């Protein structure tokens, strides 16, 4: 996000500096009426700069909070959708769905209040920054889109005997703050237990930038290594706490990544590869949270 123009900053800086020099020159003989006016103008300019910087810092911090809220709403909405898709919802699952909905309601209201407050502050200020208004508009549009998809989800739940007052209820301020803190803790825990895998032929893995070939002489004896520049979007994601099988295809397999012997087993179905059975998750993922396997 850009800040107000550099030229504007320089012009104010020069003006403040010039006015300050005039004020210093008046110290020995006493300030004239013009110099007193210049000092007052210098104080006003300093105050304006401080107000501008404070507003930009405030808005930047609020933008980050709203984006965090949007991210949490996306995550909770996906969890609700996944649970609601099940044929039968248990009492525990129903309670979880309602809590997540009420959390989303609170996050949405909090975010909209922040946008409204930031808009008022920007309108009252003398700061004219198109980038700030553009960012505010983009966030407001994203909130509107998220609100629309959440409302559609509520309609689907009402068709499954949920009550309107349940799905529209909001958490209290204290409950909302506690839920946000717990979500942060859960997110950190999930990140610690997230692993990635990529299974494919040598050509597929090379084309996707997952592996590269090195070593050998005259084109012979080269080995595959995981590319340091490989991005996570080239991998499938699993939770190390629950993942016990990694699906395979083909007839032969070569593990590019390192995993201790005894921590896994290659299971076949006839003469075809079927899956990797993870027997000891802590040991299997200890050396790396990335599994890369070439199959033929």
Query: Structural class, from secondary structure content?
Result: alpha+beta
| CATH class category label of the largest domain | Mainly Alpha
From the N-terminal CA to the C-terminal CA, the straight-line distance is 48 Å
Major sheet: 4 strands, mixed
**Biggest β-sheet: strands ordered side by side in the sheet:** 4-1-9-6
Proper CATH architecture of the largest domain: Up-down Bundle
Q: What is the molecular shape? A: flat
Mean pLDDT, to the nearest integer, reads 84
What is the fold-level CATH name, i.e. the topology of the largest domain?
Methane Monooxygenase Hydroxylase, Chain G, domain 1
Strand content: 5-15%
Secondary structure tally: strands: 9
Number of helices: 8
Radius of gyration: 30 Å
What share of residues is helical? 55-70%
């Amino acid at each position: 996000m850009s800040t107000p123009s550099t030229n504007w900053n320089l012009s104010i800086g020069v003006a403040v500096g010039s006015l300050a020099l005039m004020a210093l020159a008046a110290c020995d003989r006493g300030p004239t009426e013009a110099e007193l006016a210049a000092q007052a103008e210098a104080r006003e300019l300093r105050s304006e700069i401080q107000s501008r910087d404070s507003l930009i810092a405030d808005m930047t911090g609020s933008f980050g909070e709203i984006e965090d809220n949007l991210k949490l709403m996306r995550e909770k909405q996906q969890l609700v959708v996944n649970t609601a898709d099940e044929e039968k919802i248990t009492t525990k699952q129903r309670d979880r769905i309602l809590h997540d909905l009420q959390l989303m309601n609170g996050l949405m209201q909090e975010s909209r209040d922040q946008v409204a407050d930031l808009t008022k502050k920007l309108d009252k200020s003398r700061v004219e920054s198109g980038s700030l208004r553009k960012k505010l508009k983009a966030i407001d549009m994203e909130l509107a889109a998220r609100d629309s998809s959440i409302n559609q989800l509520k309609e689907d739940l009402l068709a499954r005997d949920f009550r309107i007052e349940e799905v529209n209820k909001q958490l209290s301020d204290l409950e909302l703050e506690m839920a946000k803190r717990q979500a942060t803790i859960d997110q950190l825990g999930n990140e610690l237990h997230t692993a990635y895998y990529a299974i494919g032929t040598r050509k597929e893995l090379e084309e996707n930038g997952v592996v590269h070939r090195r070593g050998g002489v005259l084109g012979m004896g080269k080995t595959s290594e995981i590319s340091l520049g490989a991005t996570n979007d080239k991998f499938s994601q699993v939770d190390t706490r629950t993942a016990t099988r990694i699906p395979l295809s083909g007839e032969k397999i070569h593990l590019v990544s390192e995993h201790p012997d005894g921590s896994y087993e290659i299971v076949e179905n006839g003469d075809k590869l079927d899956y990797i059975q993870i027997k000891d998750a802590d040991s299997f993922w200890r050396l790396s949270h990335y599994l890369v396997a070439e199959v033929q």
